[in-house]
Amino acid sequence: MPAKSKVARIEAPKDLLYDKNHMWVKKNGALFIVGWTKTAVENAGDVSYLVLPKKGERLEAGKDFGSVETGKWVGRFASPVSGEVVESNDKVVKDPSIVNEDPFGKGWLLKVRAKAAPKGLLDASAYTKFAKTCDK
Amino acid sequence: MASPQTVRISLAAAMTLGFKKGKFYRDAKLGCINILMEYDKGCIANCRYCGQARDITDQPICKSLIRVSWPSYPLEKVIAATKEAAKRDRSVQRVCVSALTRKEAPKDLVEIVRKVQKGTGLKVSTLITPTVFRKKDLEAIKKAGAQNITVAVDCCTQDIFEKLRGKGTKGPHKWDRYLQGIKDAVEVMGKDRYSVGVHLIIGLGETEEEAVNFIQKCYDIGARVHLFSFYPEKGSLMKNGRQPPLDSYRRMQLARHLIDAGLVTGDKMRFQAGKLVDFGLPEKTIEAQMKNGTAFITSGCPGCNRPFANETPSQAREGLLRNYPFPPNEEDIERIEGQF
Mean pLDDT throughout B96-114? Predict the structure, then answer.
């Protein structure tokens, strides 16, 4: 995960929850949609290559999954939620630029079925404060 | 717009100057701001491995070169940002200006060098093509304040050169002109250790013996070799090519380093079926040089480190880093030893 943000203005939609690994989560019925925040995406650069877990794979909150590469950097995502992957976003794998263009929308990464709601997540206001501290 | 008013800079340079967002794997720092000239009609050469080849671009768009995009900016903006970047980050030590093959390039490159040197106060290197740069142009480059002239020969034999850059591609480049270009550069710049460079790409179809012979030839002339590992450039005529085997590249790095350090000459090295099997030095010396790690750091002008230019960051994470943009740590050295 990016350690420092160089982004001047933090964007964090209010209908999402966040963790300190700069991942966002949106509850959608029984599923949780997971993505990467704009702060993290911009800090990393233009995404050129993505690897996401396949349907049926299990994720554990706080543990790494997948891989993301930009022009000069590579890293892994950390899952904000424990559960089973029910869908990976094939479109962003085929065209990773979508993650840069629309990280909170079409750039979502996974849909996960979790038995319990993820704990310790931040609301938009708390995440914004946190992300600003990363900027220092 | 075209050079000298505007120039392209590498993605790494654009990130370092704050024009593009992004960061470097392992917190690598860029040591040299790479500038590439640009023209409305692009490069007239047609090198098969290059993302700027005439057949695939024939336009000013630089989709990919050395694996990444090269955005365009006004030269004055690049100069101002470089000066600021060098003030806040001591890693930025140098600017390198690379020419395209066009008849107007020599005059424009001289102007860019003069402005960059004056505007940044940094050391300036140049990468030229002898096809359009003659000795008088090299003299003008020196007079403009350049500290180094590097000739991008890229191929180590005449056959490979002709096939990939010359007649085989209906391109304008000629092997003899390039060799003469190195000699001219040495005459103009002198035999000072850092004054003249030669770019050599490993993995274009040569044997290790051919590469070592060429490296030695360059040192005999008075130039240092800057080593690159072939990477199949997206969109280039060699986009389906393969990177050279890592063990072979490591041998070439070590051979170049040993010659560069004056520890041995190429004629003392032994080969079997073109493969380097003996560096011509005692095993203890070889071991010490490998442990030292300098051989595997990016070779080039002082400060030039080209982070992740010859491999993807993912390959770097897998331990397949070709040119280390920083001194390799103990773990890296252990991995490198295993790669031999």
Answer: 97
Kindly compute the dihedral angle of the four CA atoms of residues B213, B219, B224, B229, in this order, to the nearest 10 degrees: 0
The class that CATH gives domain A17-127 is: mainly beta
> Is the pLDDT score of A136 beyond 60?
no
Interchain contact, B313 vs A2, CB within 8 Å:
no
Return the closest-CA partner of residue A32 out of A102, A126, A113, A101.
Answer: A113
CB contact under 8 A, B68 and A71: yes
- Tell me how far apart the alpha carbons of residues A37 and A90 are, in angstroms, rounded to a whole number: 18
pLDDT tens track for B302-312: 999 999 999 99
A8 pLDDT band, cuts 50/70/90, is low
State how far residue B307 is from chain A, nearest Cα, in angstroms. 7
Who among B23, B67, B317 is closest to A45 (CB)? Answer: B23
Whole-model pTM: value is 0.93
Least confident of A53-62, B49-58, B260-269: B49-58
Domain extents for chain B? 6-339
pLDDT digits (tens, 9 = 90+) for A93-103: 999 999 999 99
Which residues does residue A111 pair with via DSSP β-bridges, in sequence order? A33, A87
In angstroms, the separation between the Cα of residue B74 and the nearest Cα of chain A is: 22
Given the DSSP bridges, would you call strands A31-36 and A23-28 parallel, antiparallel or unpaired? antiparallel
**Domain range annotation of chain A:** 17-127
Nearest-CB residue to B15 (from A49, A69, A72): A72
Written as one string, the DSSP assignment of B1-59 is --TTTEEEE-HHHHHHTTSS----GGG----EEEEE---TT--S---TT-TT-TTT--S
Indicate whether B56 pLDDT > 60.
yes
* Contacting residues of A for B11, CB less than 8 Å apart: 71-72
**Order of strands, edge to edge, in the sheet holding A23-28?**
A17-18, A23-28, A31-36, A110-113, A83-88, A58-59
Q: Which residues is B228 bridged to in the sheet?
A: B201
Q: Show residues of chain A in contact with B20, CB under 8 Å.
A: 45-46
| B258 three-state secondary structure | helix
Q: Indicate whether A3 pLDDT > 90.
A: no
CATH number of B6-339: 3.20.20.70
Mean pLDDT of B301-323: 96
Q: B201 forms bridges with which residues in the sheet? A: B228
Q: Among B11, B67, B314, whose Cβ lies nearest the Cβ of A67? A: B314
